[in-house]
Protein 1
Amino acid sequence: MTRAGLIIIAVTLLSARPAVAASCEDLAKTSLPNTTITTAQSVAAGAFTAPGGRGGGNPFADLPAFCRVAATLKPSVDSDIKIEVWMPANGWNGKFQGVGNGVWNGSIDQNAMATALRRGYATAGTDTGHEGGGGPWMQNKEKLIDYGYRSVHEMTVAAKQLVNSFYGNAPKFAYFNSCSSGGRQGMKEAQMFPDDYDGIVAGSPALNPTGRAAYGIHVAQVVHKDDASFIPQAKFAAIHDAALAACDAADGVTDKVIENPRACKFDPGVIACKPGEDSNGCLTSAQVASARALYQPFVNPKNKQVIHASLEPGSELGWNVFAGPQPFGTALQFFQFMASNNPQVDYKTIDFNDAATLDAIDNDIVNAKSTDLKRFVGRGGKLIQYHGWSDPQIPPGGTVTYYDDVAKALGPKVKDNYRLFMVPGMNHCGGGDGPASFDMVAALEQWVEQKKAPDTIPAAHLTNGQPDRTRILCPYPQVATYKGSGDPNSAASFACR
């Protein structure tokens, strides 16, 4: 072989060689824009414990050895975003998973990070730039932007760079997986930062939290209009049973689960008390009016546009969220700290103009209502969204409407990149009488990496951690329907139709 040939081979080998990996502790010296690394430490297998953890055993005792990096990001003068990045010391699957949070965040979800780490992922989480729940920080626009979308994006960019430095290789694929407010974070990523993730799982997303706040206050005003209008929690079961009686059998099998509440018309007036009667098994006339309000979308009285979707039949056992003794706290905090800076605001005095002001203040900072997913779809991104039909915290109709609107914009090809799975009988992000145990991350991995689109998702209902009923989840607008024969507790007896 000629000298020139040897040189070419040598150059080829050198260019193919991965960058030199850093030790975990060396990552403390990493220079990233607007970033201060506060911790870079190797954690032995089973040695991690949550800061401030109390009794009850260590939920992280089964974690493998990993490199833990903590950092503070300051993309604006008022920013103070805390993040953590966890990277397996061995057995890295070559991929990255960002995780989100619930409600107001205010802390890093280490449980979600631990779940990703157990699957071999390098993973990252953020506190979104503040501590605790809703508060005066919402009056600071930069901090509101950090909470709304910037913190997750900045976390993702910094984490990918740290992963590259630690392993000497960038992750092959990047995924985001979260539920509730975390589902909203995933949708903001798809809408605003389409290059951050190859695939996103957005569960029970709070797409329109300012609208939900308005709906929550509206419901509170109705059910607390007077003593007669309040529905005691002891009556929720009777309303739920009546909803099941009206809607349960529509999918071909009676199993205490309403497959598609939108296909059933239910009026709580069917359990109206007889004159002079009042018991936990019936509703007074004033309580019937309150129950009907919970099933009705909150509509702009001026232009009749829907401000937010309503709860659905099947959600009644969780009505304490919106119709409990006190108004829904998350809803009220939007008006206390975002529309104003008055923790003492009286929810009974809030009117539609206040709701409109709240939406204008937000100006799509927190809301994730944009249906423009063209950039995310254009680069081949895959999005799996799921929502429980019995969700008592984030009414699921908004998710259905959002998908319909995106489908109108993208046309029939929407299913090539975006699929929605409505989960019958599931509460908020899990639980309930429906098949609430499933693996959306595995389905997303197959879709992104193997081009195998999820035509169905296997799911199960668990009792004491064991499956006692299996089902298939179908991509909306299809619905799982009993074939007419076979075990009604087996997924094999159902088809998407």
Protein 2
Amino acid sequence: MKSAASREVNKIRAQYEARFLSAWARSDELFGLIRDDRLLAKPIVWRHPFLFYMGHLPGFSWNQICGGILKWQSLNPHFDELFCRGIDPDVDTGECHWHPEVPDEWPTLKQTEEYRDRVRGAILESLDVVPRGFSNDVMAQGGRVFDMVLEHEYMHQETLLYMIQELPIEKKNRPSWAPRYVFHGGPISRSIHIPAGKACLGARFNELDFGWDNEFSAISVNVPAFNIDSLPVTNGEFLEFVESGSYDEEGFWLPEDWKWKQLENKRHPNCWLKRDDEWVYRAMFDHLPLSQVMNWPVYVGLAEARAFARWRGKRLPSEAEFHRAAFSGPDGRESSYPWGESAPTPRHGNFDFTSWSPAPVGSHPAGASRWGVAELVGNGWELTDTPFAPFPGFAPYITSYPDYSKDFFDGKHFVVKGASWATAAELIRPSFRNWYQVHYSYVFAKFRCVSS
């Protein structure tokens, strides 16, 4: 008869094996969208080529689980180092945190795939070892290190997709399941008053099976009353800003944002094109008339969102205001999701790859918060004007990855919340924090305006 400990190990193995196999299948599917002759392409100059990410996902997994927790002998020390960490240069200065030196020549596709497959086999072997108490490291307890590696994979799947978005359509392998776009109209945005009250940011360590270091510790803050748009800004609304000429008026931009705009010669959002006199929207696999997607949320960087909000005589929400609008309610109670306590499903929003494109805003009324604010989770990350910074009690507790967050507490990265259509459901929790630079405009990120 199996002991209780053995049964628990088998349960953990079955749970995580299914999750790893599913995550790897999705990653392989995404890499399959890229033609082999484009794997060394860098469609975003601030990112490594695609091939790096094919090696980075297994490299990170090995370094955290097999090398970090289990201290196993490396399968390929050079690749463990080469693929250990990506880059996030300052888009204004080009300066970057520590990362391995970029090689003169990247490994071949075959070499990278062989490394990936060997590491995956080792990860599956580790599922029988880590839960047996091999290590006293906090990351070895309760499958925490497995959750971290899986969430890292989920986040990079989204990175891959917004990089793939930047490839010319003819440079991609169009899948048989390419999206069916939705173009219907939706509700009209209205202003919703949120009274003064508390917002609970972050989480306590024992509340989560796993959380990244920047999610801890919990803090309660007082939030003054404010008004928030019930829906995010659409392509149609942003087009008014552009065609009125206001997008090109310096007075609506912060000085540093205007300088960036002029240097980059920015004339419109990243997903738009101008062909003759017609505006075109660059979807993942198609070019669509912008007139068809007027009700989709506009994807822009923080600098552009700030300028639009100032044009409207408003501003962007803070992280605390987002939390109050999303997770509190008229009864003063905090909920796990804007809509309540039930787990995220497709009826609650456009996330977890249920659609491979944005949808018209307001398409998921079941996902509205208890204040009536719609789409705070899904259809695009929500930009805030809060610099990414530690909560009181912050500690880089992941000993094998101490610089996950602290390298970006630099005043140049800002918090984004919620989820996009390419965000895994496992990342949807109130304390999860994403962050990007002000002048990084490639992310599937939307915004809405607030006023005091």
Protein 3
Amino acid sequence: MTSTSGGTRTTSWYGRFSGVARDLRSLRVTYRGRSSASCSQTVSVWHWPNSGWAQVDSRSIGATEVLVDRSLGGTLADYVSSAGELRVRVRCTSGSQSFYAGGDLLRVTLTRP
């Protein structure tokens, strides 16, 4: 987890999955997050050809849990490295001086042909 200390505060955490086959029929990310203060929470998956994060979902959350459950589209092999690695990032940003952001579920569901 990383965070900033001034202005807008950002906290990020990551999941790395190895041994993923590139011939996917479907790719779904499920995440349940929460925060003690209102923050904007973004779920992203690494897009290897662009060398950058592809946003799956973004929304403001407060004290109640938020469930993200999204299927990714496009060329699914682009989200898996040639070595079989899949990366997921959750980032929470807030202007509040103090906030807690967390999650109690991160699931990646893959289907092969």
Protein 4
Amino acid sequence: MRAVVQQSGARALFLRAGQIDLQNGMPLRIRPVIGRLPRYVDLHLVYNATPSLLAGLEQVDEAALADAIAAAYAADTTRAALDQARVVGLQIDIDMPTRLLVRYEKMLAALRRQLSADSKLSITGLPTWMQSADLRSTLNQVDFWTPQFYGTDIPTGSDQFIPISSVRSVSRFVTQAREIDKPFYAGLAAYSYTLLYNTAGALVSVRGDIDPADISSAPDLELVDQRPFEQSATNASPSECRYAYRVLAETVIDGLALRAGELLVVDTPTAESLRASSRAVRELAGEKLLGICVFRLPLAEDPATLTIAQVVTALADREAKAKVDVRIFPDQSAANEWILEVKNTGTADSASDKTIIDLEVPPDALQNLMPETAAGIETLCALGNNSPFSDRKPCSPRRANLIRFKPRALRVGQTARTRLLINFGLQTTVPILVHMQTDTGEQYENRLAVAIEGSTP
């Protein structure tokens, strides 16, 4: 986490410190934060609601809810002092229905009375609140708020084309937030939604924690559609991307059970879509803008988010770039067995099925392909002039002088591998051509001379 904070230049970290649950009619904090609290950044401890509390909000006493949150915050600040962490405030993350904002105001007022003068109190907010006459008085109880400029509408049918966020919606929401004239952080989304629809096209499940790479590489899923949510007449606009997969056979991905005929839709942000949204925020927010709050912090164990490199690139208003690294190294299990490893080290994702890695090899060098990777491998031969990487046709592995590796997907940070049974002889480098189309439509091509690791000159 420290590396992420340092790379991003974050001035504050909003850290979930637990959830408020409803047990026997009374609110109670559960799932407290574990581990040592970071001491290198200002902390706002965040408390959100369980589904049980959300379902019972109309029956919960406002003072009792305030007491539960205040007790949790007091315990957590005491613990933070032992860790020498800098806790500067707390944030309430409750998706309060707009009609209950008056009750929310009462709870916040009761909570404020229990906090020290130097503790900042803030809340997250829904875009729908900004149409309510009760919002301003609710915000009078807090020091600032973090309206979430995303996730307003969830597509309940597979035929609906609704992104998590768009530059157009962000521009509209940030303009409304500016007119409220309350200090705010702009909440922007940097994570994927995965939506499962049944055979009738009705929404079954929404997940925000599944690795899109696991979906794109699953053998029982067929990619049937991929496109940006917004597209100009000439090219893709900075936009989130939608990938739709047909389930071919019953399977399970990260605990999500899928049945044949169902549709799995993945809505993924891009560095360019986050860049465009953050630019809109800076241009339209006005003087009350405190900063941009990215949901969620891109940690290694959360592959559903953009990487830290993508987030930093976007917030710095730099163009996302494609970059692919290639390695060839020996597989220790048998002689002449090699691993071809391809990794996306740039800040732009590859569009599905749009990455091609061509290896130029001597004729008769390739002895066999590994069965488990044959579907992603083609063997090709020269047609006439034998010029590298051109004029090829399919041929047998024994005759081939070009190996074409085609990963199903290559997201930023993702690695694809295949095993080859090949005799390189005295060869120490391999000419390789990398071609990739990014999710924003960019065509990336790079010619390399890749060293064969472990070879003898």
